[in-house]
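Sequence only, no structure available. Ideas?
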Amino acid sequence: MGPMPRAHRTLLTDDLLARVHERAAGHDRDNTFPHDDLADLVAAGYLRAFVPVSLGGAGLSLEEVAREQVRLAGAAPATALAVNMHLVVTGLAALLHLRGDDSALFVLQDAAAGEIYAFGNSEAGNDLVMFGSRTRAQRAGDGGYRFTGTKIFTTLSPVWTRLATFGLDDTDPQDPRLVHAVVTREGTSTRGDWDTLGMRATQSATTVLDGAYAPVERVYRRLPPGPSADPFIFALFATFEILLAAVYPGIGRRALEVGAAATRRRTSMKYAGRTYDQDPDIRWKVAEAALVQDGAELQVFALARDVDEGVDHGARWFAQLVGLKVRATESARQVVDLALRVAGGGEYFTGHELTRLYRDVLAGIYHPSDDESAHATVASSVLGAPRG
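Reply:
I predicted one. Tokens follow.
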């Protein structure tokens, strides 16, 4: 007798996803934040998905949340990407907790109490990403830190109550430190500069830190600049890349559904009025999209399961994670492109769902790790570091 099938817990009902989907086009059109979506997700306990049951949460695994994110992104990509950042911060805290490190336990306690986390790390012109910072971290007299700098792409900008951020403390030039901590809204301001091609409802506006304060108990890492073997860095990369990657197969899944439905409606004069789902060329394109889509979903779930089960990929872990992000986002672009091709010219008009999915899927180009960085990481994992 074979192994019993795995049971995946879920928090998102079909009714909730239907409501979220119904609102998505309006938020995209109006460039507004989906407050009603967030309220539904809060009521469903979704923002406590990673919080352990002992703290009042659902205690879901990374794979289970990744599966939920695929479903949510199929309903509303921007809503999924927005809540994703809260899930990344709580997910990395949960992973550390699972492995015996409670330095970020307060994040889980905050989430259990209803706080909403955003991720304030990205900076314009910082291609070191997490291994360097333009933001200044200045130690306060009580051991806490004040942060001064500008963070871009701060998703959930209208609603976050806690911001996970970092900056450089170079008080000692011989021992500079990247300080990772959590601040509140005090000492921050938000620019109303989010007006983008896609993913509009995320409202990922620029955040200015003007002495934003993190008390010592909310400073969870002081690391040297550059790559680090610290468990926090692995937890951050694992949750960020996997949950980010999960959003894009969700877009692909929905695009394939919409494209396939269009082939059953469209009729062909060449084929005596038969619908296009009987056209061999169209069927080939739909099959190609499905082949790509199936692989994209499975790789996300498989790598998430490896994290949950503590599989040891050794030095290949970071290559696996950044490679997943590139493959998932690029596969989704391919699926949406094929869906547009089989759906016909009617979908090219503004307001149709596939045009929105096409604009949303392009955001995958810009998330870290970018294509160049990912290729460099993967090359080094196979060939070793470049010489000279």
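The mean pLDDT is 95.
Hope that gets you unstuck.
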